[in-house]
Amino acid sequence: MASSVQRRRLGRPLAAVLAAVLTAATLQPAHAAPPGDRGEKGKGPKKPPAAQTTAFDYTQVSGLSEDQYETVKEELRLPMWDGTELHLEVTRPTADGDWPVILESSPYHGTLADREGMRILPEPRDDEGTSLGLTGYFAPKGYAVVMMDLRGTGKSDGCLDHLGPHDAKDIKQVVEWAASQSWSNGRVGMTGHSYVGSTPSLGAAMNPKGLATIVPSAGMATMYDHQFQAGVPYFLQWAGPMFAYEQLALERDLPGGEHFGQKVEETGCGLPNSSLTAGEAQLSGQYTAWHAERDWRAGATASDVPVFMVHGVNDNAARVAGIEWFTQRGGRAGDKLWLGQWDHGSGCCPTRRGIQWTYALHAWFDKQLAQRPVDTGPAAEMFLSDGTFQGSRTGDRTQILVDSQWPPSSQQMLDLFPTSGNTLDTARPDSSGSQSFSGDPRGFTDPQGTGGVDFATAPMQDDTLLAGQPLLDLVASFSAPRVHLIGTLYDESPDGARRRISQFAINPELRHGTSTPALVVPGTRYEMEPPGFAMAHNLRAGHKLVLRFTTSDPDKVPTFAADPNVSIFTGPNGTALQVPVVAAPTVVDDTVPLTLTDSGEAPVVGDAQPEQKASVTPAAGGPERTPLTVEYHEFDVLEGFDNAKLLASAVPSMSADIDLYLQRQAADGTWSSDLASGATGSLTEEALTYATPAPGRYRLEVHNWAGAPATRVDLTLTFLNSAGEPGSAPQ
């Protein structure tokens, strides 16, 4: 199959080992191939890192800046290049000085988020349990923290631009303004989470004077990655640029909104900038001019500023495909990566790394902005978990893969071939064959119960560390002119339990490229290259690697999934999979503390509070949090336990989108605002985590966002100690 993929096959020693592990077949001869647009670009692999025996503890970094300044906050309106005035807030030391600048550029201020930077930096907290955020943590240490409301949002004038060209010019201007102020040292760093984690890559692409670094968390450099995986729409996020973001912009102009009555003529003026203007392409997944205006990948990849990339492979709102532009930087010197198993983490902990994240960000900004000679840790850390899919998404941890770059320096691609006997072998089959199935939408709620076909390796004889971006050359035919074909890579344990570790997807109409649709003729055999999610996973001995094809999945909108017949072709010119194997991994136990005591020491490990179970039944379902759609479960966090983390999970008795919110009771009996939330689009489960719950009375608000009336929701409250060990289960 013709392909532009970079094919780096395994060298002979490791190849022989894995050939014995997987099958009796031998691997093809090793060879190196030039970079391609599906592989790495730029420099060749670096040498593996020096041997490391313990995890890097960011709380022990010496020479970090310390609290020493009183601070002041200033609000101002800054005219942009076209006269539109944007709202800015600057928190900085009251003392005279030239301060390094941290910029958060957000559409959420005043609606979904504060202007203190609590979402990106939830730890540490004050005595009341409130996050200090970027302003409360960094300004007293000698930083100027700038909060920017994007045009058409918060208190800024203008029309919502969805990270388009107007936003780009605005961000460039604000960065250069901040770098030129009398209180600035001329060095600006951008950070943020989710949508706010996308503005830094846009900023890097614009190459403004004074931008010294970016730290994007769970962000993207193109709106296409927010909506589609090669034409297959992501559940919930697909509709964001159509409706959800414009709704936020509208709220600020309605009664009670921060911008109400100020520019009535601008109410709803962002709608013409929404992705609805792309028309039918929003169904086919075609990359259009609307996406091209919001595609900053090339500029971000080429940018000279050091990048600290932060993302979770199981992110369910900003999929890990959003880091591909960073992968294309090819392990550039000065860059850093944190890649975890976690999900989106909104409302509690963007990286699931607790106080380690705080100190890692602190060290990075101290080095890049304040230019202090501090250690920023390894260039690449991939946080691994042997837990379940749900557990890994919410913070389970076992080991850390440490490397000198991303993709890993000793990563090599292992060829695996589906066979007509439903196996994955290391030798391509000599004869042609196929496996067929009838697709259906049931995979949206039950990915194992829907129509599909599986291909599996033999059980691993040794641990096999997979890290990088897998590649798939897919040969298939379809009985329908439009179908969403999804290939999921699973780790299957000896007891048959499966955990997703990567996923491919494609609308076959876009087999020649997302901007080049082509007719699909039913029954015709097609060659395709569906993109896959980056991965970092230790496939343990005794486990299998399974490649499963379906037409529906919980990660995707279940359109065009009803009754297509799909054939997957195998053999000499058939389907081929490549998985990235780390040939010489440096793996350390993940034992660093995720919380600290008030004295700054790692907590003494004790027993966590016992697990609790309960059930609640909201009377009705609906998108608004009302007495009918919400039910509460109250509980106590007790004195005398080492409760480093609270994990609350919810399982509805029937398919329903359940959201969770955690609140704490004050001394006067009132309840706090939300301390943490879990609000994914899953119809089978929901979870939230909250670090270091102080003793006191709490309640879990269970919201039936979309489900049948009187749907029972079963709750489990699990407390983890400082070593990550759960409290005892109820007897």
Write the layout of secondary structure elements.
Blueprint lengths: L11 H11 L48 E9 L5 E9 L5 E8 L26 H6 L5 E6 L15 H16 L3 E10 L5 H8 L4 E7 L5 H5 E2 L2 E2 L6 H12 L29 H4 L4 H4 L4 H6 L5 E5 L11 H4 L8 E5 L14 H14 L11 E4 L5 H5 L5 E5 L7 E8 L5 E2 L7 E6 L14 E4 L7 E5 L2 E8 L6 E8 L5 E9 L19 E3 L6 E5 L4 E7 L14 E6 L5 E7 L3 E4 L22 E5 L13 E8 L7 E8 L4 E8 L11 E3 L7 E6 L4 E11 L6 E8 L11
Parallel strand pairs: 3-4, 3-5, 5-6, 9-10, 10-11
Antiparallel strand pairs: 1-2, 2-4, 7-8, 11-12, 12-26, 13-14, 13-25, 15-24, 16-23, 17-22, 18-21, 18-24, 18-25, 19-20, 19-23, 27-34, 28-33, 29-32, 29-34, 30-31, 30-33
Describe what you observe in this structure.
With 731 residues, this protein is α+β, with helices and mostly antiparallel strands. Residues 1-17 and 23-49 have low confidence and may be disordered. The protein contains 12 helices and 34 strands. The longest helix is centred in the N-terminal third of the chain and has 16 residues, at 165-180. The strands form 8 sheets. Strands 13, 14, 15, 18, 21, 24 and 25 form a 7-stranded antiparallel beta sheet that branches.
CATH topology of the largest domain: Rossmann fold
The count of DSSP E runs of length 2 or more, i.e. the number of strands, is 34
User: Can you give the mean pLDDT?
Assistant: 90
- State the shape: globular
Quick summary of this structure?
The protein has 731 residues and is an alpha+beta fold.
Any key phrases for this structure?
731 residues; alpha+beta; Jelly Rolls; Rossmann fold; 3 domains; 7-stranded antiparallel beta sheet; 12 helices; 34 strands
